[in-house]
Write a structure and sequence with these properties.
Number of domains: 1
Structural class: mainly alpha
Low-confidence stretches: 4-16, 156-160, 228-235
Largest sheet: 2 strands, antiparallel
Radius of gyration: 18 Å
Strand order of the largest sheet: 1-2
Shape: globular
Oligomer: single chain
Number of helices: 10
């Protein structure tokens, strides 16, 4: 009985993936990735400032905003998952910041619809192998389909759900190509930013597919027992 209680407590603590926990996990992955360091060393992205790149496909007060502005003006102020631990970034806003921004934005709420706070990207984060990865709600995609680029929602079922994921694996490959072959410098920077943010989104989904709270189609925008125990002080 004692062993069972210890396992339960440890599981709740270990599997608490709140937004700041996602960011902490992904930061470790970024910092320890030899391949990533070699990639940025041999490319022209390592020292660039991406602070002005727009979060394409998502608007705030009918205005296009940057990835970082969306987090600062929407997520930090309105999202229960972020507001408890304010997310900040370096002044440089380099490739590390974009990767971490993508990890945060995969839990983003939609700021431009009447159900603000009840809908967002977090609706597509479940992975339920017991039920063949199928969701209970029409229009939602499982995390694996959402991450790999094969997800398509049922048109018209929920107008606030995106029909496709602009930051999935297939799109990341396209952004990678365009980020180095486009003729204009501003185009290359824009696609490089989208590629890096996409990787952050995918890392978040990889985290979620290993969390008990995501083994069923049950969105929890306000967190749950597992998530609340995982909150820490990463900023």
């Amino acid at each position: 009985m004692i062993k069972l209680l210890i396992m339960l407590v440890m599981t709740i603590s270990i599997f608490g993936w709140e937004v700041n926990t996602h960011r902490a996990i992904d930061r470790q992955a970024i910092e320890q990735s030899v391949n990533l360091k070699e990639f940025v060393k041999s490319s022209n992205i390592s020292n660039q400032n991406y602070g002005n790149e727009l979060y394409e496909g998502y608007r705030l007060n009918n205005t296009n905003v940057t990835y970082f502005e969306y987090i600062e003006d929407t997520e930090n102020k309105n999202s229960d998952a972020v507001s408890d631990w304010n997310q900040t970034f370096s002044v440089n806003k380099n490739f590390n910041d974009l990767l971490e921004a993508g990890s945060i934005l995969e839990d983003a709420q939609w700021a431009d619809h009447p159900w603000f706070g009840a809908n967002g990207r977090f609706l597509n984060h479940f992975a339920d192998p017991q039920n063949g990865y199928k969701g209970f709600s029409l229009g939602e995609a499982n995390a694996l389909s959402w991450a790999t680029g094969v997800a398509r929602h049922y048109p018209g079922v929920n107008p606030y759900l995106q029909d496709s994921n602009q930051y999935d694996y297939l799109n990341a490959l396209e952004y990678f190509k365009d980020g180095f072959v486009s003729k204009q410098l501003d185009e290359r920077r824009r696609y490089q930013a989208k590629m890096l943010v996409s990787v952050g989104h995918i890392l978040h989904l990889m985290n979620d597919m290993n969390v008990p709270a995501h083994t069923r189609d049950d969105a929890h925008p306000n967190g749950d027992a597992f998530s609340s125990e995982g909150r820490g002080g990463l900023a």
